Hints:
Layout: H1 2-15, E1 29-34, H2 39-54, E2 63-68, H3 69-74, H4 78-81, E3 87-89, H5 97-105, E4 111-113, E5 133-137, E6 139-140, H6 151-155, E7 159-160, H7 163-175, E8 180-184, H8 211-220, E9 227-231, H9 240-248, E10 255-257, H10 265-271, H11 277-290, E11 295-302, H12 309-322, E12 326-331, H13 349-372, E13 378-386, E14 394-397, E15 403-407, E16 417-426, E17 429-435
Parallel strand pairs: 1-2, 2-3, 3-4, 5-8, 8-9, 10-11, 11-12, 15-17
Antiparallel strand pairs: 6-7, 13-14, 13-16, 14-15, 16-17
Amino acid sequence: MNVRDSEAVEAxxxxxxxxxxxxxxxxxxxxxNSCSVRGKAEDKALGKLGLLCATKRDRPGxxxxxxxxMAQRLGADIFRKIPKLDFSVGTRQCGAIPRLVARAISGETxxxxxxxxxxxxxxxxxHGESGFSAFVTILLGCNRRCAYCIVPDVRGPEFSRPAxxxxxxxxxxxxxxxxxxxxxxxxxxxxxxxxxxxxxxxxSPNGFTEPFPRLLExxxxxxxxxxxxxxxxHPSGCTEELVRAMRLFPNICRHLHLPVQSGSDRxxxxxxxxxxxxxxxxxxHRLRGGMPGFALTTDVIVGFPGETVEDFEHTRTLMDExxxxxxxxxxxxxxxxxxxxxxxxxxxxxxxxxRNQVLLADQDVRGEAANQRLVGTVQEVLVEGxxxxxxxxxxxxxxxxxxxxxxxxxxxxxxxxxxxxxxxxAPQTLYGECVP
Length: 436
């Protein structure tokens, strides 16, 4: 979501006469897009802002700004921490940044523009030259109020963009060569629930009545869009109707990132996640039952207040039962103002680290086993370009969102779909050879 916001702001600035700098050192304007999900993210953003503002001693005309969740959370207090910061703008206000940059260039400083979280969002549809893949925001904010999460406070309540706007934006992207889109929302399956994204009240051509499957249906019909992804999911949204939509349209990828956070019902209740272990596993079963070979990835928090060794072991067994293709493991850190911040953070740091490492090791074994099952298959790979580690080899992604490394045939271009025969694997990577 932050990548999408950053891209939109860059495109807006270019449209207002600025030029994108190739390197940070060359830039006259530098904007830090901040995240507040974890304390470490805020610490890194504050450190970066301090270093950037220090460069203004030698470059007095340089403009340094802050946007995003940390700006929203801190408000004007950010200027006590970073006195030389030129401007700070909160969430849901990306469209205001060209105007704030102009004010800073004219000599104003310490400009703070923080709207109430209830303010209707400004959602620019501007995109940069992003090649063949694009992010598209469809839902802003979140109404779930999980105990550990600061997002509802800094991103505000849920707001679904009108379906006509979303479809028009993606249609225009396809006209400019975009082949893959990822639909974004903090709880993306709640699209259209909080406000009327579909105004006509009709049933879709394929009989869908739920707003999110209806949107998937409309996007799947856009000429040129060969892959559709969406994130992040929630077990409550894994309905039979969603599974039917994903099964019906082959350009909807057979992959979902579905955060679980814990495998213990007691901890899930303390987290206010709104589902049980059984609910989560039932959702995973619906997805995989409707689409064999479906890839499932997740997020897990270790060391949440009150998590015992027994609770942790419940998480380990759930992860085995769900058989995740990949998992992102985070050590719990309290966020100011959240319900969990008032709970005793009683899991020692070294124990959080131990649990983190145990789950990572488990996932390496699980991921390797899942990938080994693909050896000998031919995967359809959307080509991204040269591999980061070896430019002589190229990389792309399978429909299951697995990274695939291969030797490119002559003349291959990013955005092309190729068949790759898988010959070997690693826990998070497939390797193979292109086939005709």
